[in-house]
Design a protein that fits this description.
Number of domains: 2
Distance between the termini: 73 Å
CATH architecture of the largest domain: 3-Layer(aba) Sandwich
Strand content: 25-35%
Structural class: alpha/beta
Helix content: 25-40%
């Protein structure tokens, strides 16, 4: 007897469809003076999806998106999802050469761009470019919607299909396209609703950039589950606090740098405002220093503080929940919903409690793989479906996980990922540089700062200003080294590989 599995495939547009019918006049998005109801959001998403298909795109064609935090980001995600068109989020801070690589590698067939970001664009663009609040790069976005039919495309999109291709730099210096499925993100939205109290009548604020995986997930999840997302165009700590008061925000996602910047305002900036509606704070991207965590708990006593750990490839892996925030300070918590973890030594054998080992996870949130890179996909996954998180951890007797060290050299500065190899390849082209290494050093504001360590050619000299001038324009600004050191030789192991953990001991 054949078994038939029932139910429709999961799709990140399904929540928009549902609440457009269930509560059409409820506010879905607030962006400054603009308000968008669920019915209007659904209609605009339908117009975009059907319009893109009418323009000749086919399900599966990638659509690049170059926007800051604004209302249109959510309707674009929903409209493309309805039409089976995976989005390719672009970082507004990237330079033209970086954008060119992503456009070419992803095979993007169209681009939606904010007029104020068109100066970042390369000369070669996809055939279709829609421009928001302008027309310098292509047809005006609103005119395109107006001319399109307000009809749901109703394309048969499988839940295993990618809803987006998120680019993250690899250790080789070349960005990889991470294929993230509708299933992955939809289940993430449901799980966040359970853990953080999202749903109809609940209001959240989108502080982190929407192009970032976590920023998008926690900006879209409130609307997907029937709540309201308030957009903050650009993070300003004082403005954020005022928006929490004005809009009675109930949940907010931050990276530690955001909290550091709030702290720098002084306690008065918080205590002078009514922030009593803020029930949930969740942190991600880097460890929350214990001293900063204590400050957050003291100034926001009504808020439950969650600390998340994860990656673009694995999504959320662990969560340290409020009841354990201080008792297990320094830990990243337990495995998240539907997530299994495995901690093993170099031979792949499980380690004992308290012993360091490499962390692997398996869950329905895992990526589909890297776009057009089966070797890289195979290198980070196991035959039974576990994916390496790239970190060395310990697990205590209660099952709480703590990060010991990064197996990879990833630097997280201000919530943004920087892979040293990308910067090293630029530095190595300088005529005065014989060898180089890029490392991250602790920074109170940014979590980590990018530091260049150089071995110079005989008779040559370089300073911080010269390095900044040389690197700037070749990579995004946040990747430019904030500090430069010149040393006589880089430490190496017996195999001749640079040992970065020893570099820090050589610096003044």
């Amino acid at each position: 007897m054949a078994i038939h599995f029932g139910g429709a495939d999961l799709n990140i547009a399904s929540g928009i469809r549902e609440f457009a019918a269930a509560q059409p006049n409820s506010i879905a998005i607030i962006d400054g003076d603009r308000r968008l109801t669920f019915n209007a959001l659904y209609e605009r998403a339908c117009r975009l999806g059907s319009g893109l298909l009418a323009a000749g795109l086919r399900p599966g064609d990638p659509i690049a998106v170059l926007l800051g935090n604004r209302m249109e980001y959510l309707e674009i995600a929903a409209g493309c999802a309805m039409a089976g068109l995976p989005t390719v989020p672009l970082n507004p801070r990237q330079v033209a050469a970086e954008i060119t690589y992503v456009l070419e590698h992803s095979g993007a067939k169209a681009l939606i761009v904010d007029e104020i970001l068109t100066s970042n664009l390369p000369t070669v663009l996809p055939a279709l470019v829609l421009t928001i609040e302008g027309s310098s790069a292509g047809p005006e976005y609103e005119n395109f919607l107006h001319k399109s039919r307000a009809v749901d495309p109703e394309i048969n999109v499988k839940e295993s299909d990618p809803f987006c291709i998120a680019y993250t730099s690899g250790t080789t210096g070349k960005p990889k396209g991470v294929l993230i499925s509708h299933r992955s993100r939809t289940l993430t939205f449901f799980a966040t609703a359970l853990d953080w109290g999202l749903g109809p009548g609940k209001t959240s604020i989108a502080v982190a950039p929407m192009y970032h995986g976590a920023g998008f997930a926690f900006g879209y999840a409130p609307v997907f589950t029937g709540g309201t997302t308030v957009m903050q165009r650009k993070f300003d700590p004082d403005e954020t606090l005022q928006m929490v008061q004005d809009h009675k925000i109930e949940s907010m996602f931050l990276v530690p740098t955001h909290a550091q910047m709030m702290r720098a305002l002084g306690d008065q900036a918080i205590t002078s405002r009514d922030l009593s509606t803020l029930k949930t704070l969740y942190f991600n991207a880097a460890a929350l220093p214990v001293a900063l965590k204590k400050w957050v708990l003291e100034l926001f006593p009504q808020s439950g503080v969650h600390e998340l750990y994860g990656s673009t490839e694995a999504s959320i892996v662990t969560n340290l929940r409020p009841k354990d925030a201080l008792r297990k300070a320094g830990s990243v918590g337990h495995p998240w919903f539907m997530t299994q973890v495995r901690v093993v030594d170099d031979a792949g054998n499980p380690v004992s409690a308290g012993e360091p080992g490499e962390l692997f996870s398996r869950s329905p949130y895992l990526m589909n793989g890297y776009l057009n890179d089966p070797d890289a996909t195979a290198a980070c996954t196991t035959p039974d479906g576990f994916l390496t998180c790239g970190d060395i951890v310990t697990v205590d007797e209660e099952g709480f996980i703590s990060i010991v060290d990064r197996k990879k050299d990833l630097i997280i500065t201000g919530g943004s990922n920087v892979y040293p190899r990308e910067i090293e390849e630029v530095l190595a082209t300088h005529e005065s540089v014989a060898e180089c290494a890029v490392i991250g050093l602790p920074d109170e504001t940014w979590g980590e700062r990018v530091v260049a360590v150089l071995v110079l050619r005989p008779g040559k000299s370089l300073d911080q200003t010269a390095i900044e001038s040389f690197v700037r324009g070749k990579v995004a600004g946040y990747k430019v080294p904030k500090e430069t050191h010149v040393i006589s030789a880089l430490p190496r192991n017996a195999a001749g590989k640079i040992v970065k953990r020893e570099i820090k001991d050589l610096l003044p």
